[in-house]
Structures are given as structure tokens and as C-alpha cells.
Amino acid sequence: MNFLKRTLKNVLYFFKGFVHGFRENAISYIEMEERELENIFSLLLMASFIGIPSPPTTLVIRLLPYMVKEIIIMQSKSRRLDDPLGEVAGMFEIG
Amino acid sequence: MNSVTLREYLLPEGDTRIIIVIGKGGVGKTTLSAAIATAISSHGYKTHIISLDPAHNLGDVLEEELSSTPKEISNNLYASELDLEDLVKKYLRNLDDSLKSMYRYLTVLNLEKYFDILASSPGIEEYATLDALMEIVKARSSWDVIVLDTPPTGLTLRVLGLPKISLIWTEKLMGLRRAILERREAIRRIRGDEESSQEEYKIPVKEEEDPVMQELKKYYEDINYLYNFLTDLQKTTVVCVMNPDRLSFFETKRAKDSLLRFGLSLRLIIINKVLREGCITDELKGVLALQKEVLNKVKEEFQGLDIITIHHANDEPRGLNALKDLGIQILESD
């Protein structure tokens, strides 16, 4: 009886793992999209750094304190900028 | 008071009236705006004249030491000079405070570097002026009339153009932010709440809980409020001062077009320092001919606008009495 229960439980975990995997896989695309958008958002606010017109400075200054996550993303993105292809390839599980 | 009629667009109609005096450098903006303010205050309206020009000389015209707090010059007349550098510093202080509260859970990120560069980023003075303008408009209720003496046309037009540009920027950023929040919402819905709760910093998902979105919305409302105020003919009057010469004429023409693009409209043109015909030396004959040509051009170009000519004075009008006499010429319509 106990054995049956345990097996059933393990089978359940097995399928749960599947579901979890699928779910994470589905999310990863949205997450990439989100990261990309957050990167663009903070890049726009810091636009004067890369030489394009920036939004109203007052607005930037008002938003800056809340932009922690976005700026971290922007920094890590720009660090990995030498291999953008690699990132996309990783995303689509190539290679 | 005798039965002369006053130009009603220089007087308050229900709400406070803001008179923005623009013009090329050196045409006499400061003197004439001081004159207008003095004349209006002499009719019993509580008037505040504010100089936004970084090269302040309002104090020289009024013969008073001025600062950024309004000083009573005479009955009903108050004057102040805004210090742009102070305004910029005030921003930075505000930012510093909010940064410190963020640093509590964020120790590695070096935001100060960004912040230093922002402080000297191009255009910060224009935005500081815009912010000052916003504060003036918000705190207007203690005055009947506010006269703004502005920096030369170029800078002023850029400041007056900012509300519209800022609205466009903010709208776009809000759209982008909404897209980000939608993604976050989707991720949370699929994954559930359980994973994000263990982090110290909770990532905002809903528009109401996202400080960035809230700040964007607040900024949008502020700017929109200012924009509506500046474009309302019953509340804001734009007066342009020019001299009877060609450069001044062309600049006025351009200013009128730019103002229209920003949604503002010019209401009155004052032609200052016009020479009277009469005892004229040969040297001045050319000047007079040019003046005549420009005056005709102005009449042709700005049809439908109110135009006043002020004659050249032998002495610079300084002090309250001289200013009042000059201002009455502008305030009273014939």
C-alpha cells in the first residue's frame, strides 16, 4: 500500500516537473521580451549617454530612484553586448 | 478713475492673469514689463513681476535689490528674480534624498555617476525654468496678475515649447512602461506569486503599485495642467516687444509662428524706441526711413493683432513714476 502511494507520488512529481519545465520554457520568451523592454526603457531615459535626444531631464530625475532593476538589466545587457547573437541562440536553444 | 478703457487681456478674468513678455535681447523687455506691472498695480490689482532672465536687470529698472522671494515695491506691486542655479541645485537635492532611501537594499549600484552627468546635461536650465513656471502657475492664487520678464526669445521659446514636447515623451514612455507591466503580469500569472515573495524587493506588477508609472502619470498631469493654462487665452497673454528694425521684425515673425506651433498665441506687439519725425539730422534720415518701412511691414504681417508704438525717450525710464507713465500707455487702449 505504502509502496503504491510512494510510486503514485513520484509519478505525480514527474509530471509536475514536466509541467514546470514547459511553463518555464513558455515564460522565458516573455521574460526575454520583458528584459528587452526594460533595457530600452532605461536606455531611453539615459539617452544622452549614447548620443540620442533624451526625455525631459526633470522626468528622468524623478524616475531614476525607482529604476534600480531596469538599470541593473541595462548594465548587464551592455556588458554582454559583444555577443548578442549568443544570447539569441541561447534563447532558441541552438548549438 | 476716469472713463478710459483698459486692455482687458492684460487684466485678470476670473483667474489670475499671467502676462509673458518676450522679445529679442535689448529691445526693452524688462523696462516694458516693469512698466506694465506698475500700471496694472496702480489700478488696484495685486501684481507680481518675476524675472526669469538669468542676466537679471529687473532690479536695476525698479531701483531695488531683488531676490527670489517677492519683495513689495509699492502698494500692490511685488517683484522677484528667480535664480536658475538654485533651482537646479534644488532638483539634485531632492534626487539625493530619494536615492538614499533606495540605497537601503541596494548597496552595489553606483547611481551617483549617472546622476552627476545628468546634472550638467544639456537643457537642464530650460527644464528648471519650466519647473519654475509650473510652480508659479500652481501658486498663482495669491496674485491677480503675474508679469513674467523672460530671457531673449530663443531660450524663452524653447521653454514655452517644452510642455508639448514633454507630453509627447511622457505618453510614449507610459506606453512602453505599460508594455513592461503587461509582461510582468503575464509572467506572474503563469508562475504564480510564490517565487517572487522571498525576495526583499518586490517587483511591481500593477500600474497602481509601480512607482515609475505613478511618477509618469503625475508628471503628465502636471505638464498637461501647465499646458492648458498657457494655451488658455483668458489666463495667459503673450506680449512681444520689438524695435523698429528689420532683425527685430523677422524675429517677431518667427516667434509668432513658433508660438502657434506650441499652441500659444501672441496677443500684443509693442514697438519700442520709435523715433518721432521732426528735427532730424541727415544721419538719422536713413534710420527713419527704415523705421517707416518696418512699421508698415508690421502692420501688414500682424493683421488682427494689437500693436502699440512707444516713442523713443530721451532718458531711460527708471523708477516707479516713469515706469507707471510708460505702462499706462500700454494698459489703456485708445
Number of helices of chain B: 10
Summarize the biggest pleated sheet of chain A: none
**Terminal Cα span of chain A:** 46 Å
Mean pLDDT of chain B: 84
**Helical fraction of chain B:** 40-55%
Low-confidence stretches of chain A: none
Unreliable stretches covering 5 or more consecutive residues of chain B: none
What does this structure look like?
The complex is a heterodimer of chains A (95) and B (334). By secondary structure, chain A is an all-alpha fold. Chain A is built from 4 helices and no strands. Chain A is elongated, with a radius of gyration of 21 Å. The model of chain A has no long low-confidence stretch (mean pLDDT 81). By secondary structure, chain B is an alpha/beta fold. Chain B has 10 helices and 10 strands. Chain B has helices at residues 29-42, 58-62, 84-102, 111-119, 124-138, 153-191, 211-230, 246-261, 282-301, 320-331; strands at 5-6, 17-23, 47-51, 71-74, 77-81, 145-149, 236-242, 266-274, 306-311, 332-333. Chain B has an 8-stranded mixed beta sheet with strand order 4-5-3-6-2-7-8-9, with helices on both faces. Chain B has a two-stranded antiparallel ribbon with strand order 1-10. Chain B is elongated and about 90 Å long. Chains A and B meet through helix 1, helix 2 and helix 3 of A and helix 3, helix 4, helix 5, helix 6 and helix 7 of B.
